[in-house]
Amino acid sequence: MSNPRLCYTFNIRLKIARTIELGRIIDDKEFDIPQVDTPPTLESILNEPEDEEEPFILEDTCLLNTENIDAHSCETSSLASSDSGDRTHLKRKTVELSTTVHGSVLRHSILKGISAQIVSAAVNLNQALRLCLGSTATGAEYGAVSALSINHDCTRLLCGFAKGHITMWDLANGKLLRTITDAHPPGTAILHVKFTDDPTLAVCNDSGGSVFELAFRRLMGMRTCESRCLFSGSKGEVCNVEPLLTAPDLKDHPITQYSLLAMASLTKILVIGLKPSLKVWMTFPYGKTDPTSVPQLAWQFVPVQKVVNPVLAFCRGDTVHFLLVKKDETGTIHVIKQRQLQLNCDIISLNWINSRTLVVMDSGEKLRVVDRPSQEELESLDVAEVQLVYNSSHFKSLATGGNVSQALALVGEKACYQSVCSYTGQMVLLGTKSAHILTLRNWRERVDCLLKQERFVEALSLAWSFHEGTAKAVLGLFGDPAKRKGVVADKMIEILFQYVERSVKKCPEHGKIQIMEQHFQDMVPVMVDYCLQLQRTDLLFNQLYTRLVENCVARGVFLESLEPYIVSERLGCVTAPVMRDLLTHLQDNNMMDSVENCLIHLDITSLDIQQVVQMCWDNQLYDAMIYVFNRGMNDYITPMEVVMGNKLLVYISCSLAGRAYPLGDIPEDLVSQVKNQVFEFLIRLHSAEAGQEEELYPYIRTLVHFDTPEFLNVLALTLEDFKNDKQALEYQQRIVDILLKVMVENSDFTPSQVGCLFTFLARQLAKPDNTLFVNRKLFDQVLEFLCSPDDDTRHTERQQVLLELLQVGGVIQFDEGRLLGLAEKAEFYQICEFLYEQNHLYDKILDCYLRDPLRKEEIFNYIHNLLSMPGYSSEEKHCVWEKALLHIAELVTLDPAKSADLVAMHFPEEVRPIITRLQDDHLVFQFLRCLLDQREGPHPQPLLRLSPDLHELHIGLLCRFTPRQLTDFLKASQDYRLEEAVQITEQYQVHEATSYLLEKKGDSHGAFQVLLKVCVSPPVLKELTMKVLNSMSSFIPLPAIIQRILQDPVYGKGKLAEIQGLILGMLETFNYEQTLLETTTSLLNHDLHWSLSHLRAAVSRGLHPRQDHCNICLQQYRRRQDSPDDIIIFSCGHLYHCQCLQRKGSGHAEPRLLQVWSCYKCISSQRGRGGDRVTTETGRGRSTSLAQVSQ
């Protein structure tokens, strides 16, 4: 970059070719967002402190108004870069992009080389050398060229130099027009110099971070330049500027009159208007970013429903933001924030390649082509081999002594502003050895690139996206949609032919058949699918299939692949030869299910009906047979003569309902005819080939025998569908009469089948619009049949059938008194219950439950529900209450626990009379035990307080029946009298319970005497004594216990061996407790030592800062030479100058401490989240600076 010649001449932006691609209209929903607040003034922005992180002043309507986001506005991000600088962004949650094929979007070309002695030159479009500007003397005086700009008509060239000079050249003749040396402060390099739309107005940006306006004048033959400061670098360095440039066809756009200029400083973005007067339109802070990230700006006019408005794309780091600028009908200017684009890479270059497509370059020199509306990454290219030229030396201002801030120098490490530019679908990259051009490929090139690599499937997928209009970055497709589809379809047909030829030629000739099949299974379904999508079945069957038939494996794979398309009805018609081959192939391979699936979905006009029927009959393909008879011959009767079972029932149901079987509908002109034919078939007296032994009505008889409920369901559906069809109603009445004649007069049918018939009839007769007539005597006859007391077989089945008949309304067909009498004789207690409930005789229902052996247990729930639930009168409840008391003995015998729950819930005052009625003592015992035992159940038992005499009665019964449970009861209960309880236990000689009661009474001596009577043998007494002494050892000193043992006359006269076990047991307990105490003490001491050593190591550990610059002033601490300063590092990794922290108020004095510091950045972030102030003792920092380095 030190050569003085115009080594950036390739960067002539070719304004003559600058146009805006208006190709596709973007959905306006993405831009329909409310206007922003009043923008701040330039003065207010210049006076803002650089370290404040103020929120963006515009509303982010992409989050607030999700209804206005278009279909492509889902939150997406590009693929992560493996070497994109800052890695912290990889933690962000992203959404995977679509796997749609985009192909190669960019074409890479290298410009013809220019002589090595002429390092750079201005070139024309055919790369012929045109001008060579400057000289070695100019280079020695001005330094290297650092920035270039050409005006919109390509007549003037502005050159910025490393030593701060600016020159203007006439590109028509190569003359030097101006040399500007006083446009900005001396000693700074020119980073950017750019023309605006006004040829007399330009802007420049120097390495001091300042921005100046250059106004060119020509007075009295003298060329002059007036400079005005737009932004001072003392308030924050600007490192990028981008004026809004307009194409000639948009010169009348209302925004162009303001000469917009976007400026990117190290902390924020500014958009200002240069005309008619200087005005700030908006400001946008970056927020938290990596200080080494390079700010990027890029303007583009974007069409939105035939209205074109400028959009500014800007970023610093991995997030691209978009601002739409528009002027409404009232003249108000709106700056609207759009949906941002999240990329997992550190962006160092950002360019529009057209109005929908962005090209970004990350710090790993990888180009990413991104479609902005859908946020899809279309292509990723590694351009490291270009050896891109960076502007680092100019950002560091090495030519003028390096007098730049550390922050600007950090940005300059990745700056390549002047080495990458774009125009009209092309990007130019400047490498150290050559210039490279990346151009958008047209749609044919993108498809052909995939074809050259023999990626046929991807090529077809990409071509189909062009056909459907879903492709991105489309170039070269013109005309109306129909014409574009036709062009792409022709290309797809060409690809299909190539794909088939390549597959047939490359098929392995030898090897396993599975390998050959897999070879064609990868190709054939793709070919078939695209032919169907293009609606070119003629191409599929007449040309492509003809080519595949030559290979028997390919032929088989092709025929088998047709089935899913036929079944899904994507393929409804197949040519006769192909259909013949398909059926033959499937039949030869015993794939009869596939044959049937295909037949019922195809147009049978192309079939040999006789051959198909015979094949279906031989292989029992009844669905296909029905389909062929119905569709091919309009015959709806023959299938019913040959098909039986569930298929026949379903077929009859569909035919009567006007639906074709197995799918579709019967033609409207045949519906009535088919319905009549089906009814006539059902009521036939005899079949076509009837013998002498055949019974009447064979078809109805067979269907009823096969599945009575289903056949009646079919008949019920026809009654609903043909309420207004008189002829159909006549047929239905005829069928009912036949059913009654066949089933009632024939003993071959079970009660369930007969019951189903009369249940069906009762349900129909109960309807208000019923048209059927049934003789009531038949119901009486059925009742006699079901309630026959002499027939004990199928008792439950007959009762259930009669109950269902009554529940659907059949009760009105019977005499209720006679029905009740027959039900009682037949022991149909559920029928009795049904009748009693209808007459509100609920007390009699209790008798039904008690007599029914299968439902006795349900009586408790019935009584509880009736007495608890509303809806019953007090008289009805009282009758049930009295009836339950009358049968209480039976209830207790049935289940004492449930009886006790019932009594506690509903009969608490009747306990004593109930006990009186229970004459059996064991029954009383079970009842009292359940009543006094608190249990969990479906109906929680309330706490019932019984009198003491009942408790004492229960104690006596316990002594008689379960004496082992008596002590537990005495411990749990407190409602008995002690004197009476002692007398009862003494009467029944339950000594353990007597001892407990005496001890509870306070007579411990008496209780012990009772126990001694039980433990009369010395071994038992010694064992009891040892248990007592072992229990005492936990509370009484061992010497006292031993002394007491030795004084005992029992042990005093014996030998020491007799008490050896006792003493050893006590010593073992002592040793165990001593070991436990020592172990616990050792563990506590070890934990305390580990904690103290860990804290000491943490305090003495050295700290490693994250960066080598101060997090407040952003200056490297080694570069500050003005005054000695302490460096403070916190355990969180942040580094500060002591003076910077003091200015921010992050230190305060405390007693006995020199200074207590707190991390400014951590506290600021916690304040932003609404947290309290965090001191260094509670935050990540420490109470004092952990490292102080004197500078």
Indicate the multimeric state.
single chain
Q: Roughly how many Å is the radius of gyration?
A: 50 Å
Structural class: alpha+beta
What low-confidence regions span 5 or more consecutive residues with pLDDT below 50? 1-37, 45-98, 115-123, 1171-1191
Number of helices: 45
What does this molecule look like?
- One of its GO terms (biological process) is protein targeting to vacuole.
- Keywords: Metal-binding, Zinc, Zinc-finger.
- Residues 1176-1191 have a biased composition (Polar residues).
- It holds the Pfam family Beta-prop_VPS8.
- Residues 1166-1191 are annotated as: Disordered.
- This protein is α+β, with helices and mostly antiparallel strands.
- Helix content is 42%, strand content 15%.
- The protein is built from 45 helices and 31 strands.
- The strands form nine sheets. Strands 16, 17, 18, 19 and 20 form a five-stranded antiparallel beta sheet that branches.
- A hairpin with a 3-residue loop joins strand 17 (307-315) and strand 18 (319-327).
- Helix 19 packs parallel to helix 22, helix 21 packs parallel to helix 23 (751-765) and helix 32 (896-906) crosses helix 34.
- The longest helix is centred in the last third of the chain and has 41 residues, at 1060-1100.
- It is flat, with a radius of gyration of 50 Å.
- Mean pLDDT is 78; it is low at 1-37, 45-98, 115-123 and 1171-1191.
